Structure of Peptide chain release factor 3:
Amino acid sequence: MTLTEDIGNRRTFAIISHPDAGKTTLTEKLLLFGGAIQLAGEVRARGERRRARSDWMKVEQERGISVASSVMTYDWEGCTFNLLDTPGHEDFSEDTYRVLTAVDSAVMVLDAAKGIETQTRKLFEVCRLRDMPIATFVNKMDREARDPFDLLDEVEQTLALDVSPASWPIGMGRDFKGCYDLINNRLILMQAADKNIRSEGISLSGLDDPRLADYLPEDSLQTLREQVEMVRGLCKPFDLQSYLEGHLTPVFFGSALNSFGVRDLLSGLRDFAPPPRSHKAIERRIEPNEDKFSGFVFKIQANMDPKHRDRMAFVRLVSGRFKRGMKLRHVRSGKTISVHNAQLFLAQDRELAETAVAGDIIGIPNHGGYKIGDSLTEGEDIRFTGIPSFAPELMQRVRPIDPMRAKHLARALEQLAEEGAASVFKPYLGADWIVGVVGSLQFDVLAARIDTEYNIPVRFEPTELYTARWVVGDDPKLLKQFMEANRASLAEDHSGHPVYLARNSWHLNKGQDDWPDLRFLKTKQEV
Ligand code: G4P
């Protein structure tokens, strides 16, 4: 197959949802349809096995959340799908944001009884910033649900997004019978007896097809006809361009638990979701079908096996083809690296990556040296943009219980910062380190990880700090003056960038007012 054909068959996507809407269940069913797993329950089981492997993951287990995200690749009807998992808990949204920089589209899962929830909305906003196409899956139709028109209205109003139902539900809760596929004119009935069945649907010539009466009682049929007429009158017809530009979402109704609607979602992704898109670099825009390899690191997972200090850099391929043994340029350091041991992630296994194309994700095992945002190329100096670091909202001082371990702690913190698990700041004055996070649960996870993975018991202590801002200025002299005048409020982050640590909002405003020619940034683009 040519490179362009190979790339055209890739669909790299993530699922965004509020916890409990059914993301895990849907993931599992997508993998089941893709033949990547044999039985439902395996994703959860695998998660549990993985969790059991190290102590810090106990934190996540105890709290019933998933901290680590991963990649699952599977094939279905001629397409290769790369599904990037995102942690659901809001304390880990920073990780989610980065994962979203590595996908081309998203599936938004809603609980049919709840509609848009806080986390759905937040994640949606991130997708919108990137004009990402979003398909919607309204889940749990087998339970008491809200009126479908109401749900569509909510999506349209709260997200300012056009909606176009791809299917229409017939009944709900105990009376949920299935859906009418509005795109292909098929009736798809739910077979609740077997939760893993892959319903093919019954092709019809339309809602006037006399065969409908064989499957649905007259009253359901009547309601369906009326509702579909309303839908066709009220909602926009599906417009591919509008979806690709992020202005319109096709809406599928289903029940992931019953494997219902999953096939339709998959064929929707195959038919409409975008293949790998071009990416912006500082120097130029990179097209996926360029001959030469390029990619960027969007995630680093450390200590996947706590016995070995191994780290995995997850690389999204932006262009070209990867071949095992390839020599790649690590643009930040200027070094050339021969990559022999890259991994591909299947649903249940990892395997050695012999080849991969734009849109795919490979994992490069390493012992440090890769940072989030790093670019890899076949020689050209391009640096991809757009991976954010967020100003922390909570900051604590961290100290080793054994003061002799301070140096080791510094190393551990640096690694964790490179991995993106937290922001780490070294104040210019004083010996302590400050750790900044977006959600308080991250402190617990960090303490447990520093203890089990680096063998350094630590204590976190509250600080009087309010927030941090990366300080940037075009005039190096002015920046130097600022730094000399504010040493007591300044720190360096793990890459040596100056950071202003504000004690309260007044202090922050004062810094900004006193130095109008400097910029105090809330997010730092990792380049
Ligand atoms: P999440 O990853 O988005 O957090 O959600 P998850 O898939 O874990 O689903 C949350 C709960 O909703 C689970 O129940 C799951 O079984 C249930 N669920 C998912 N899809 C459907 C559906 O289509 N219909 C119905 N009725 N329920 C659904 P749980 O009791 O929390 O977990 P479990 O004990 O069933 O695993």
Remarks:
- Confidence is low (pLDDT under 50) at residues 47-69.
- The chain has three domains: 15-64+107-272, 279-377, 388-525.
- DSSP finds 15 helices and 33 strands in the chain.
- Residues 388-525 form a domain with the Alpha-Beta Plaits fold (CATH 3.30.70.3280).
